[in-house]
Amino acid sequence: MNQGMDMMVHFGASILVAVVILIVGLRAATIIAKRLESQLLKNEFDASLAYFFAMATRIGIKILLVVAILNQLGFATASLLAALGAAGLAIGLALQGTLSHVAAGIMLILFRPMKVGQYVEVGGVGGTVKHIGLMSTELATVQNVQIFVPNGNVWASTIKNYSHHNTRRVDLTVGIAYEDDIGMAMRVLQAMIDNEVRIKKDPKPQILVANLGESSVDIVMRLWTTSDDYWDVHFDMIKKTKEEFDSAGITIPYPQRVMRQL
Q: Which of 120, 143, 214, 261 is 20 to 30 A from 164, alpha carbon to alpha carbon?
């Protein structure tokens, strides 16, 4: 009977220690993961990368915690881990598609072809990156529509990142009538560009005759500005071009087609 009581006391003590390990371990996993993420963000790590490392740390600690608890309770952890490995393999084969998205998410977070806050186009879908998770990437369109793209699709497609570089080139084409003076039109455009402080001097802006169309002589402007100012410069220059051409008496012709009756 004393032996039975000793076994019960020993087992009860093991359970008590296991509960303490569980509580302390879970608390420690949360604290360590949060502090790691906070420290990485302070060191100007990418937010998605910091989140990934924190989550991986939390999961790793919890796995070690489970092994420690099972060992404390007297289970043969080696054989149990082998069984879990076999079960994991079977689950992995059944979830190949899902795991491919997870693998792609890890690649996106590690290689960082895009970051949170950048405007990208992925597989024909454009939007600002809000979050890069393990399974999917969240985008917000210019209309503020939320879009989730599976990471497998993101990694397998061409990623066009509009915000990666600090500068972008604005290309604008305007047509003038064949009767108008090309040199005068180009001087008007040059004066307009010189007065726009958001347009960079280096690289030098270009004004070129791009095409002799059916109804107009097409002039293209190639202007460099910051990525943040791109759309403002784009729309403002279209408006100013019309206003300056009107003031100078330069015509932007309607499409015309000459028909001759034989």
A: 143
